[in-house]
User: Which sequence fits this backbone?
């Protein structure tokens, strides 16, 4: 489970001064469900997700991820989270297997259990044909599979995806979407950020609309449709972001 | 600190570095090849040029040969000179290197020498000090004339029945108490610390950029920060790799130099038998020991600075000036007259260069060695603290 409670992030910029990238964001994402954070570029999605993955520290507020506090127990949080974004690249000079093994070891996995897990993942994701190939020699699709294996190697109960399909071709994006659904099916808590309406409609059990750093609306797709008397998510989104904060 | 995670990060970085051609070239190949190329390549070339100059006959002009027939004959017979009459335009001829030197005897020079032993005569010698061959020709002429003068004094002394010592009341005999190894050590001490320190820095430079700015450029920084490894453990694992590479570069530089000196001993013996370029095992180990905390400083300092950069190119821009900051004190150690003092023992880089110089000539000033090791360890600790701190700064890690 993810419980964000008044998460706030303030950046200091030399030219622009104080920037409240995320302001008092609170929400709950439950196991076996996909929570989608929907927002335009610069809305505060990435900063929120980075705080939940403990890559950034909140300026105010806190969150509990898999039962651990992001401020007090960041290492514990990271041990129970799989984080995937287009910014989480691979080490080009490592092979696919070395890459996954490296992260398995950093998660404290025993060598025997790690080997077994690698075999399981590489078979499930059909990665055996390129397991010894260096990551910088892999195609985009292969790289995404390695990234997926990297996030799953320690079998985390919480998965955080930051716009994972941005810049990917249709086939690779489908692999990612299938993988996200599979995570939900396995009972994991899934937090997913996107600015693509169709993806949010297809995947999310709960949608949170974020704009200018604040969470403006939240609910299931049906709830949002009822509340705004509108069927099209894009129209709902526009109305939400245009209403005064 | 989680030592297991530090070790995991270190082993991964080591594997990564061993597959990085740029690091292998700058940190492994360069120190191995530098000294053989520098000494055997350039040394052989220099020796060949010097030998050729030695064998070459130099054109020397004589003005007023009729006033000094004996001396003119001696100059004509000189094996390394080709003499000829010089006209009024001789200065231009020297500058144009048609003549290397010109000697001018005044009218009645030798006659006056014989007739008026009480009056000193003058000879004018023209040469171009910016031309090495001109210097040599002038030396040859001067030696010949000085020899003639010495013989003249002997003759005069003998004619007047005076003892020979009247012309030379005493002699100075110089005895060098330094062994050939010590003289060689002094030469080594001037040059080698500079090379070792600069190579140690350049050896650390590429891996330091690769594990910091390189991570940002390739987009792996967020991947690793999302893993459970603590940032302090991450920095230490990366630091150990950079430190290892800097240390290996230093060892290779010393080993390569020793091997080159051994292989080039024959060549050096042909140049001079007054010095031997050799590093004892004790001196090599002592210098390496003194360079170690400096390698820590370089590794951690470079990482702290390179992490500020968004990519490789920017990191190179930041680290370029640092090379001068290190080279300047290293070069200062080569200045004549500069010696290790308690004050200089606290100046980073310069202190290590100066103590290495002492060690190469066989001196071990223990108190200063302790001060230098201690102060360099303090600088190393500060650099490491700065590197760890940088990895905790979000505005540095996610600078865009």
Assistant:
């Amino acid at each position: 489970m993810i419980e964000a409670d008044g998460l706030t992030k303030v950046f200091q910029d030399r030219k622009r001064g104080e920037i409240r990238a995320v302001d008092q964001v609170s929400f709950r994402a439950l196991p076996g469900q996909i929570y989608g954070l929907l927002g335009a570029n610069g809305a505060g999605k990435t900063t929120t997700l980075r705080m939940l993955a403990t890559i950034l520290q909140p300026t105010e507020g806190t969150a509990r991820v898999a039962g651990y506090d992001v401020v007090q127990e960041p290492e514990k949080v990271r041990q129970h989270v799989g984080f995937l974004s287009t910014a989480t690249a691979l080490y080009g000079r490592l092979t696919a297997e070395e890459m996954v093994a490296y992260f398995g070891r950093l998660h404290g996995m025993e060598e025997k259990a790690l080997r077994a897990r690698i075999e399981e993942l590489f078979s499930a994701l059909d990665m055996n044909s390129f397991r010894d190939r260096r990551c910088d020699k892999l195609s985009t699709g292969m790289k995404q599979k390695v990234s997926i294996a990297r996030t799953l190697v320690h079998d985390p109960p919480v998965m955080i995806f930051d716009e994972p399909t941005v810049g990917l071709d249709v086939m690779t994006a489908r692999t990612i979407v299938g993988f996200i659904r599979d995570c939900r099916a396995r009972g994991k808590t899934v937090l997913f950020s996107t600015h693509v309406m169709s993806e949010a409609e297809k995947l999310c059990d709960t949608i949170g609309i974020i704009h200018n750093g604040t969470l403006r609306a939240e609910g299931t797709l049906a709830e949002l449709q009822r509340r705004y008397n509108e069927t099209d998510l894009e129209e709902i989104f526009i109305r939400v972001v245009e209403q005064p904060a | 600190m989680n030592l297991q995670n530090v070790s995991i990060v270190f082993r991964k970085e080591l594997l990564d570095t061993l597959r990085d051609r740029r690091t292998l070239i700058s940190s492994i190949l360069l120190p191995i090849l530098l000294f053989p190329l520098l000494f055997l390549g350039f040394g052989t070339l220099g020796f060949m040029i010097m030998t050729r100059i030695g064998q070459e006959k130099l054109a020397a002009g004589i003005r007023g040969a009729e006033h000094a027939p004996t001396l003119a004959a001696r100059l004509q017979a000189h094996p390394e000179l080709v003499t000829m009459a010089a006209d009024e335009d001789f200065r231009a001829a020297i500058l144009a290197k048609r003549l290397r030197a010109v000697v001018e005897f005044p009218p009645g020079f030798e006659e006056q020498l014989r007739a008026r032993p009480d009056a000193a005569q003058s000879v004018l010698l023209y040469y171009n000090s910016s031309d090495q061959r001109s210097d040599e020709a002038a030396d040859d002429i001067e030696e010949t004339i000085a020899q003639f003068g010495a013989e003249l004094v002997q003759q005069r002394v003998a004619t007047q029945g005076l003892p020979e010592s009247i012309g030379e009341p005493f002699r100075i005999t110089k005895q060098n108490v330094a062994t050939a190894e010590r003289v060689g050590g002094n030469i080594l001490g001037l040059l080698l610390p500079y090379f070792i320190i600069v190579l140690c820095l350049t050896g650390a430079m590429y891996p330091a950029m690769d594990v910091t700015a390189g991570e940002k450029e390739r987009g792996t920084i967020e991947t690793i920060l999302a893993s459970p490894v603590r940032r302090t453990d991450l920095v230490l694992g990366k630091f150990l790799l950079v430190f290892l590479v800097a240390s290996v570069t230093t060892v290779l530089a010393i080993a390569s130099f020793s091997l080159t000196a051994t292989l080039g001993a024959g060549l050096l013996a042909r140049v001079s038998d007054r010095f031997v370029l050799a590093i004892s095992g004790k001196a090599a180990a002592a210098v390496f020991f003194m360079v170690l905390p400096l390698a820590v400083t370089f590794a951690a300092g470079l990482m702290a600075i390179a992490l500020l950069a968004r990519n490789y190119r920017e990191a190179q821009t930041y680290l370029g000036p640092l090379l001068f900051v290190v080279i300047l004190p290293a070069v200062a150690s080569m200045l004549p007259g500069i010696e290790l003092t308690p004050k200089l023992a606290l100046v980073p880089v310069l202190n290590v260069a100066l103590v290495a110089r002492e060690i190469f000539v066989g001196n071990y000033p223990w108190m200063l060695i302790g001060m230098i090791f201690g102060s360099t360890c303090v600088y190393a600790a500060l650099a490491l603290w700065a590197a760890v701190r940088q990895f905790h700064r979000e505005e540095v890690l996610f600078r865009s």
In short: The first strand of chain A starts at residue 2 and ends at 13.
